[in-house]
Predict the 3D structure of the following.
Amino acid sequence: MMETINILYIGRHLEILATVVRLINANENWNGVGVMNDEEAKDIFLKKDFSLVLLGSGIQEESETNLCAFFNKQNPNISIVQHYGGGSGLLKSEILLALENNKN
């Protein structure tokens, strides 16, 4: 039995957020959680053990910088990936690559 991998997706567009979370959850070993704002992202990050954070499009640079600093401070081993779309194949590849890099 493989362990469940928790993935946090932060996005600014509700439809895209819903789609990305659905695609993440289509993999039986992945548990996707999607949030739309930074405070919610920080709150949930502290409550759950995430292996990966995906940053969606539309996040301002300042916001992204603050979020990355926060996540890295809480968990120096966290993988943070910018996901700007490109279909489910790309999403899966990005996640698998980030998880693989996390192991090394």
About this structure: The beta strands are 5-10, 30-35, 50-55, 79-82. The domain at 5-102 is CATH 3.40.50.2300 (Rossmann fold). The chain has four helices and four strands. The CA atoms of residues 62 and 68 lie 10 Å apart.
